[in-house]
Amino acid sequence: MKHKHLKGLNTLRFFAAFLVVIYHGKHHVNKMGVDFAENWTIFNRGIEAVSFFFVLSGFLITFLAINEINYRGRVNYKNFFLRRVFRIMPLYYLILFLMLFFLGFAAPKLLSQENVLVFPMLKGTLLYVFMIPNLVKPLWPDIPGGMNIFWSIGVEEQFYLIFPVLIYLYLKSKNKVYTLLTVFLLYYICYMLVYYNVFNLNQVLVKFILTLKFHYMLMGMTLAEFAQKAILKEKLVKLINKDIYQLVSFGLVICFLFLDIEYPKLLEDILLCLIFSNLIFVVAFRTRGSLLNYNVKFLSYFGVISYGIYLIHPLASYFVRMLIVKIQFLNKLFINYPIIYIMILFMVTLLCSHVSYKFFEKPFLKFKEKFR
Question: Which GO molecular-function terms appear in the entry (predicted)?
Fold first, then answer.
């Protein structure tokens, strides 16, 4: 089954991955004892960028599932899970074991420490291998930052497990938008109750549950249903084609990136869900206007390799930091211009991600296409 390519979304993927890289890059610079970009909100949007990935993921898997239902009358879940396996797991396990080798064996010798990883090797590794990496930090809070990057991949995989149940509810419901919104609100209420510890749960369990940001995926699912209706009825498309609507949408994103506005937690996630959903919708389905035209060839390719950018940059950061410490010229340059670290990290990550995509990920992706 052929699926519709939604233009511009790969570019959004790249921008989200870029925000994660500069967020961690700023943290690395600060850990090296240099004050940098303390008042620049855009360097602190990494966590929100991951939440954007969640909305986009929920939107895309649902959009494709609805297309499949319209085409075949059902979703082939075997193919769905196999596609996810071939897209996510090869690079996930490659970077995981490279990171475990570096931090578990190489780094202790270089730093003369017994346990850089903090967690017991066998127990921690099993959690990562069986796709529960978001439980590692709640159990061992002091794990190295490089090992914490995997948590969001675990959250996505865990959401995929309940996705068939959600599609079942979707198919059985008469008003599908209301059903998806109801599920979203019920989940969000439970999430907030845990956040404020109304149930007085164990703190490890609380921290684990708070990683399960399924409300972002659920908002993405609701957006997918809206998108299908928009394509059929063309009402929402007329709205998003208006210059003023695109200008406001662009302005909201700029405000989000550059203004540090404090909201109560109860409202913050809702606002982010709405901003992200609107951005995805406008970029993917606008048919006129250039303000949010993100279908740029090289940026689109960077979006294609954004999964590699996301997973590879923590490993690359150890290499770049070692270069800055060892090479005197780079060290002096870094002290005077801390941004140089982030620039080098980004370029090294892009190069490694390109090589990874071309020589490692692509064969798996070609095999994945057999399960359309």
Answer: acyltransferase activity, transferring groups other than amino-acyl groups
Are 303 and 6 in contact, with CB atoms under 8 Å apart? no
Q: Which residue has the higher pLDDT, 290 or 224?
A: 224
Average pLDDT on 290-302 reads 81
Residue pLDDT, tens place only, 157-169: 999 999 999 999 9
Residue 240 lies in a domain: yes
Total domains in the fold of the chain: 1
Supply 10's token pair.
């790969």
Domain span holding position 37:
9-371
Query: pTM for the whole thing?
Result: 0.95
Q: Summarize pLDDT for 126-185 with one digit per residue, the tens.
A: 999 999 999 999 999 999 989 999 999 999 999 999 999 999 999 999 999 999 999 999
| Closest listed residue to residue 63, CA positions, set 214, 161, 180, 211 | 180
